[in-house]
Amino acid sequence: MHIEVVKSKIHRVTVTEADLNYVGSITIDEDLMDAANLIENEKVQIVNINNGERLETYVITGQRGTGQICLNGPAARRVAVGDIIIIISYASMEFEEAKSFKPVLIFPDTASNKIN
Fold it and tell me: Catalytic residue among 8, 22, 25, 112, which?
């Protein structure tokens, strides 16, 4: 039996941009991606602390060191610049493996989106 568990989480980052006229996705600073063990095109869930919205999209690599968090396309309507969000990815694995699996959880500074 396979179950889904949290693989990675970027806990509480600030939305820096919302680009409605883009194809879709979330652009994330590459430093944050590396720290959270996320890769480009990986499916993620976005949880908006400010309004309770939840959505799924995929990751696009943003410029390293910028703190960029940009919701693109239709997702841009679900956030406002300055909103605090949580970014979560999941992995499917065998039940026994999941019991000992440890996700990567990072807690950046919400003012700068930089890792402390």
Answer: 25
Q: pLDDT tens digit string along 46-87?
A: 999 999 999 999 999 999 999 999 999 999 999 999 999 999
- Which entry of 22, 58, 89, 92 is annotated as an active-site residue? 58
Q: Are strands 43-48 and 104-106 parallel, antiparallel or unpaired?
A: unpaired
pTM score, whole prediction: 0.96
44 closest CA partner among 65, 58, 61: 58
Q: Which two tokens stand for residue 5?
A: 């568990």
The answer to whether 25 is a known catalytic residue is yes
7, 90 in Cβ contact below 8 A?
A: yes
Query: Is 100 designated active site?
Result: no
- Does the domain at 2-106 match CATH 1.20.1250.20? Answer given as no
| Annotated domain spans of the chain | 2-106
